[in-house]
Amino acid sequence: MSLSVRPQRRVLVAKINRSQSFAGVNSSVERPFRNLSSFTPTVSRKAGSRVSRMFSMSHKSPPPKVPQPNRLDEVYEALKKGLTAYLEVHQLELEKLSTQIRESKRNSRLVSVTAPQGHQVKSIERFLRRLEFHASKIDELYEAYCIQRRLRDGAHNMVKAYSTGSPGSREARESLAEASKGYKEYTENMCLLESELESQLGEFHVRMKGLAGFARLCAGDQYEIFMKYGRQRWKLRGRIEVNSKQVWDSEEMVFLPLITEFLSIKVTELKSLANHVVVGNVSCETKDLFAALPQVVAVDINDLGTIKLSLEVTWNPFDKDDQPSAASTVNKASTVNKRFSTYNQSPPDTPSLREQAFYV
User: Fold this and answer.
1) What is the CATH number of the domain that holds 276?
2) Pick from 243, 263, 248: which is nearest to 210 by CA?
């Protein structure tokens, strides 16, 4: 898998594995994307922490002033792959349940046992139909966007042709004005469709799993993490305890996916009231997070990669957390193949970097 870069930046792209689908990149233009490996540090959370929502469910971002067709193509391809994977996962689960029901019906004593499974099958079938309708709606929006883009390109060529010709004739001026009017109209239509497609991207549920950093993390250290994603913000603070656990004042955040924005992460070490040290400030690609199963991702915060931020990201293809219980069970029960980095020389005050993953 290769990671796309910001359109306005000239940076190198590194190919990474599935478990490394969340790429951190320095704010400097010359520095490349980093290869990231997943890990699971030990994290404890304060009681009563809840999912943070920095937006209302009816919130819609204003349409962009300038369309970004190349970026939208990349996001659309990633979104289609994610939806296809979602359909495959739930279809496999449906086939598994159907097989269990058929085997149970062979014995008349177990007929009553299939009733809960039958309800679960219907729930998954409804969810699959909803997914298929959602995918068809996204395809229709994208096709309409492509039509407006072709019309806009044609109007642009007409404007260019009339501008280079002799502007003295009245017919030429009228044709130029008509072409310019059409170009503006098609541009506005593209912006509206881009905004509408963005509202169909669902949600990213981001769960804080902790920091890891070899000897850089010691008991008593306090850190502040600030995430910025378009107009959405998430700030949380945490400290490293003596038992190598980490306590954070916030547990989870829900972000609305955006087409043209990248997720910015800033980590600051809080040493005293007047002495805060910025550990790192990176920008991350998000289009690879459209996946059917939860992903444990790691972000290199500093240049040497000695400080890493571990996050668990779950994508919900709909903008409301109202999936059927059966569908949610598929997400949590399925196993994702991940490769985890193992560090043999870790001080006792550092989070353990073992080859395992867990979902809270």
Assistant:
1) 2.60.40.150
2) 248
